[in-house]
Amino acid sequence: MDSGEYLNITILDQRVAQIYVSTDGRTQGNTYNSYVLALAKEYGSPNKLGTRPNRNGLVSEFPGERLRWSKDGQYIKASAIEHAFTIGSDSLDAEMDEPEKGQHI
Q1: For the chain, what is the radius of gyration of the CA atoms?
Q2: Which residues, listed in sequence order, are joined to residue 71 by a DSSP beta bridge?
Q3: d(CA 102, CA 55)
Q4: What are 4-17's pLDDT values in tens digits?
Q5: Model confidence, pTM
Q6: If residue 8 lies in a helix (H) or strand (E), which one and from where to where?
């Protein structure tokens, strides 16, 4: 990673559950496209492709490429709209989504 990129790490039960890296235009580091090319070179073609509407709901105006590489319950997701990557685990995502047992609001 180059300096200037935003990084957020989520810890669950003393384990790294998820890493989020933003490469948006405000950063001075590598661009989103260079990371996608590096991932494709290292891991091959993504196994999920899709588009997502932008904030005003128009898909065609600003294509919202969404890519996903996954293997053995681990994944890397890329979002062109956010210029960001998320690295995580399906099982830890499920744990993060579960409400805490015994907690009442």
Answers
A1: 16
A2: 74
A3: 37
A4: 578 888 888 788 88
A5: 0.68
A6: strand 6-12
Q: In degrees to the nearest 10, what's the CA dihedral of 82, 88, 90, 95?
A: -100
Q: Taking a C-beta distance cutoff of 8 angstroms, is the pair 39, 69 a contact?
A: yes
By CB atoms closer than 10 A (0-12, 13-18, 19+), residue 6 is: middle
Structure tokens at 24: 């948006």
Torsion angle defined by CA atoms of residues 31, 35, 38 and 39, in that order, rounded to the nearest 10 degrees: -160
How many beta carbons lie within 10 A of that of residue 12, not counting itself? 13
Q: pLDDT tens digits for 24-66?
A: 666 555 578 888 888 999 999 888 777 655 555 554 444 567 8
